[in-house]
Amino acid sequence: MKENSYNDEYYYTLVRNNIKKLRKEKKMTQQNLADMTDLSREYVCDIENEKRNKHFTIAVLGRIADALQVPITEFFKK
Questions:
Q1: What whole-number distance in Å separates Cα of residue 20 and Cα of residue 2?
Q2: DSSP class of residue 58?
Q3: CA-to-CA distance for 58 and 49, rounded, in angstroms?
Q4: 53 φ, ψ (degrees, to nearest 5)
Q5: Is 69 helix (H, G, I), strand (E, B) or coil?
Q6: What is the pLDDT of residue 59?
């Protein structure tokens, strides 16, 4: 593995942490985010909780980015 290469779980963890951080910065609950994205609260919880190992699609990320009013690229910032 190259020094600067990352595996899938690295990116899932990065995205999960950023979604949770941005949601809290906007003072939104998981239920608020779920309602705005037409997802269940349980699914939002699964996305944010890395122990649940829930993977998500780019389409779901797009819906979450729209709800949080941020570009999708915000989820990939270190």
A1: 29
A2: H
A3: 18
A4: 55, 40
A5: coil
A6: 97
Angle, alpha carbons 41-9-49 (nearest 5°): 25
The pLDDT confidence band at residue 50, using thresholds 50, 70 and 90, is confident
Secondary structure class of 27 (helix, strand, coil): coil
- Dist CA 34 CA 73 (whole Å): 20
Q: What is the pTM of this model?
A: 0.89
Question: What are the boundaries of each domain within the chain?
Answer: 8-76
- Which residue has tokens 């819906």? 63
Instruction: Select 8-76's CATH number: 1.10.260.40, 1.10.1660.10, 1.10.10.10, 3.40.190.10.
Output: 1.10.260.40
| b/e 49-78 (16+ beta carbons within 10 angstroms → b) | eeeeebebeeeebebbbebbebeeeebeee
Q: How many helices (H) and strands (E) does the chain have?
A: 4, 0
